Amino acid sequence: MSKIKSVADLKMRRDKLRSASETLINATEPDSAIQVKVSMATCGIASGAKTVMEFFMEQLDRRNVVAVVTQTGCMGYCYAEPTIEVKLPGQEPVVFGFVDLKRADQIIEKYIKTGELVDGIIPVNYQTIDLKE
What we know:
CATH superfamily of the domain at 30-114: Glutaredoxin
Largest sheet: 4 strands, mixed
Strand content: 5-15%
């Protein structure tokens, strides 16, 4: 984050924060927005998830990609931390493992912007169980 050196810098920073907060406030229909969930359980944090989450927040904003970036608890992929889940509008979520800053950049440029899959996808290994009889 750059230092604020003038009133103009302060106003720019204020406008940027307003824009970011409006994105979160206006995300009343989450299925219509790009969603990035970063696993921030203990194992994720220890593996660098906080840095990855900050990177997504900063870079998506810098690249003018409207997205909601949130943190979540354990996704159950401790062996592959840091892990993130990306849900593009109208598509099933995709979980990526071993996400460092280089892979995060690839995910933004290829998957989020163009829908092109990139290495590091963790296959779904569970099924939803219907408890209704």
